[in-house]
């Protein structure tokens, strides 16, 4: 491998339905991008269920786009991540914070999985207590994806969250304001992720599964060799799903205002992103129904070094490249 190629990095996102990547070079210049679809049942709710098939697809992807031997940053599956604020006593110093949180598992801290990796960021202090931002992800899932990438002749060295990567891109575009309470809305083929940021930090995140009906979609291949889905279902079925998503967002806005912030704060902006092929329909319905400013990230905002527009579905991968 040449010295020049050693500076190249791969930034990868693995969903239940897709693997996609962006490759970057010197000075974070974006060089290439691509995606492969995953058959039903290969990855389910962020967990590898058919390792053999996934390995074959990864190897095909690495060979097709000449990614062998390159360092990789990747997003941990959203469904295996918890982000929330918690309170701890001021008596716990920063260097003991993580150990304290591990001891509180099953006591004051309850997670939907038993093998968490924890990270914590101290926030503001109050009388007797202080707020801490807790990140938890499943260790077994992280290890499985790390081994998968190593087996495909890649060199994984950074794991991140898709919501942090998306916000990083949003911030890079100069759209973020410190005092806003912004809700990032990520709509996928089979999942909805809602995440709140304030003062450039995540506050809360919630993952919702969406029904996926294979017969409503058609799988095609672009001229560059990337797979993509198109909507083939009836318009009333799409309208029904769009209404369900809009109602879920409205419930979340109310929950954030009345429950999480005790009536003190409201969401001031929505940022809309995702890889569902009907994002424009979702944007129209959300924008019409909700009395909050909506910032769509649905147009190409970045180009490769050779001037090719990078589709907006690669937003999370671009955010990884900006890290």
TrEMBL record:
Pfam families named among the record's database cross-references: PilM_2
Top-level division of the source organism's lineage: Bacteria
InterPro entries referenced in this protein's UniProt entry, alphabetically: FtsA/MreB (IPR050696), PilM (IPR005883)
Protein name: Pilus assembly protein PilM
Species of the source: Peribacillus loiseleuriae
């Amino acid at each position: 491998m040449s010295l020049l190629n050693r500076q190249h990095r791969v930034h990868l996102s693995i969903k239940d339905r897709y693997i996609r990547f962006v490759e970057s070079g010197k000075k974070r210049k974006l060089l290439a991008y691509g995606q492969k679809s995953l058959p039903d049942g290969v990855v389910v709710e962020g967990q590898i269920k058919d390792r053999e098939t996934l390995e074959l697809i990864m190897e095909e992807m690495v060979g097709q786009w000449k990614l062998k031997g390159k360092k990789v940053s990747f997003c941990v599956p959203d469904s295996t991540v918890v982000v929330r604020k918690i309170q701890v006593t001021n008596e716990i110093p920063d260097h003991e914070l993580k150990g304290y949180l591990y001891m509180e598992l099953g006591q004051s801290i309850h997670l939907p999985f038993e093998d968490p990796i924890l990270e914590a960021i101290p926030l503001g202090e109050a009388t007797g207590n202080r707020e801490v931002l807790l990140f938890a992800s499943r260790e077994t899932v992280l290890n499985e994806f790390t081994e998968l990438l190593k087996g495909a002749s890649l060199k994984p060295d950074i794991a991140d969250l898709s919501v942090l990567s998306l916000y990083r891109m949003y911030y890079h575009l100069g759209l973020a304001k410190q005092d806003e309470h912004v809700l990032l809305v990520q709509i996928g083929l089979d999942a909805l992720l809602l995440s709140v940021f304030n003062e450039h930090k995540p506050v809360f995140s919630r993952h919702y599964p969406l029904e996926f009906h294979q017969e409503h979609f058609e799988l095609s291949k672009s001229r560059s060799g990337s797979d993509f889905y198109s909507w083939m279902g009836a318009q009333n079925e799409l309208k029904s799903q769009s209404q369900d998503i809009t109602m879920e967002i409205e419930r979340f806005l109310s929950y954030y205002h009345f429950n999480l912030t005790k009536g003190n704060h409201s969401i001031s902006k929505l940022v809309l992103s995702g890889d569902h092929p009907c994002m424009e329909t979702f944007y129209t319905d959300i924008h019409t129904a909700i009395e909050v400013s909506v910032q769509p990230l649905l147009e190409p905002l970045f180009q490769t070094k050779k001037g090719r527009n990078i589709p907006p579905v690669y937003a999370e991968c671009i955010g990884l490249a900006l890290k």
